């Protein structure tokens, strides 16, 4: 999918070559009013993996609308909606921060809950290795998330940063031989994160669909493609890796091969700073990321209160298309198309112009923004 240019009047800064873009001087509530801007935002998130906005005034209703509208703008299935988290929901019987139970489709991500309920499990900063917990949201659902929209409301004085890693770039760290070996493979993805709490609280996860009719039941596992095609960019990304297969395995490989491959994919995510971006939060920041193509984790290195509202949109059933490209090949193809279009335009203009105006027009053609290339 191609950008229309509807967001080009807003300041944007690419934070690294491979992942992360920061917007400035715009409220998401403005973008929400404009269909073309929403669509361009979804495409930008999918291309850049994660985008950031500062100082956002966002009601819960706006927050939910943005999350649902982003996926819809780029064609998610009509029966995909917002995710109702199995525990972090508004029912009041689960983990929500005592101070608030906002909405069934809004998770309150709160350090209070982590300390209160998950004591000695995750909030023990010195015991958590940096390689632990890299995940995409709802990887364990049959129909997992496309976009997450996180609104940070309370931040500790220091610490609690979030890191994201590009799945597109992880794929490109593999040799062509390993890429071919993993293309088309599938993995059992499962989470054990909520099992002990479910049993402890005798809770059935609320039954019913969780953003899609296919997302139900108490068994939080799904078979997902190891290499996933992002339908918005057409690019290949490593998807079923890291935390998603910590308790699962790649189906087509032997147990011994799994040991090697699982460990290697995790290393590619955690050992390559060039495919990561890190955000230090300030109050009212919003981050939006594409769960199809990025992994993320939080640093549990803080002492103070940290609280955010998170809305997770459910997207399409994950798939792998053999015809999809790596990010670099996709970008190279787009550049070649743009160059071809520019040359065609210049030639056409030359034919129509007299000699005296030709040089001036050619200069203008080269400066034209080229937004409509195809992959
Ligand atoms: Fe997450």
UniProtKB/TrEMBL annotation:
InterPro entries: AtsK-like (IPR051323), TauD-like_sf (IPR042098), TauD/TfdA-like (IPR003819)
Superkingdom of this protein's organism: Eukaryota
One of the Pfam families matching this protein, by short name: TauD
Residue span of region Disordered: 340-363
Domain TauD/TfdA-like: 13-310
One cellular component (GO) term of this entry: cytoplasm
A single GO molecular function term of this UniProt record: metal ion binding
Keywords, ordered alphabetically: Dioxygenase, Iron, Metal-binding, Oxidoreductase
Cofactor: Fe(2+)
Biased composition, class Basic and acidic residues, residue ranges: 347-362
Family the UniProt entry places it in: Belongs to the TfdA dioxygenase family.
Annotated protein name in UniProt: Taurine catabolism dioxygenase
Organism: Lophium mytilinum
């Amino acid at each position: 999918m191609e950008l229309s240019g509807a967001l080009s009047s807003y300041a944007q800064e690419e934070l690294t070559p491979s992942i992360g873009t920061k917007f400035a001087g715009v409220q998401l509530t403005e973008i929400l009013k404009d269909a073309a801007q929403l669509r361009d935002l979804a495409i930008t998130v999918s291309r850049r993996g994660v985008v950031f906005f500062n100082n956002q005034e966002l009601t819960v209703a706006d927050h939910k609308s943005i999350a649902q509208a982003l996926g819809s703008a780029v064609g998610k299935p009509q029966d995909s909606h917002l995710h109702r988290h199995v525990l972090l929901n508004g029912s009041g019987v689960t983990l929500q921060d005592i101070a608030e139970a906002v909405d069934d489709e809004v998770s309150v991500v709160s350090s209070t809950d982590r300390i209160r309920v998950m004591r000695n499990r995750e909030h023990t900063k010195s015991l958590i290795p940096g390689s632990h917990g890299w995940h995409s949201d709802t990887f364990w659902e049959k129909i997992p998330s496309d976009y997450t929209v996180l609104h940070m409301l309370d931040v500790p004085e220091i610490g609690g940063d979030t890191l994201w890693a590009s799945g597109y770039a992880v794929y490109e760290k593999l040799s062509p031989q390993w890429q071919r070996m993993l293309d088309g493979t599938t993995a059992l993805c499962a989470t054990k994160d909520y099992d002990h709490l479910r049993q402890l609280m005798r809770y059935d996860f609320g039954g019913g669909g969780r953003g899609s009719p296919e997302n139900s039941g108490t068994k939080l596992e799904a078979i997902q493609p190891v290499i996933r095609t992002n339908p918005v960019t057409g690019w290949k990304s490593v998807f079923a890796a890291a935390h998603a297969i910590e308790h699962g395995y790649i189906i087509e490989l032997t147990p011994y091969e799994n040991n090697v491959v699982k460990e290697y994919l995790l290393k590619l995510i955690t050992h390559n700073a060039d495919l990561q971006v890190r955000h230090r939060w300030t109050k009212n920041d919003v981050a939006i990321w594409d769960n199809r193509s990025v992994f993320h984790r939080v640093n549990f290195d803080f002492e103070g209160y940290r609280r955010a509202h998170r809305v997770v949109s459910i997207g399409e059933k994950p798939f792998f298309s053999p015809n999809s490209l790596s990010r670099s090949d996709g970008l190279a193809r787009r550049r070649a198309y743009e160059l071809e279009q520019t040359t065609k335009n210049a030639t056409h203009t030359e034919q129509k112009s007299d000699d005296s105006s030709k040089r001036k027009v050619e200069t203008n053609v080269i400066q034209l923004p080229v937004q409509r290339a195809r992959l």
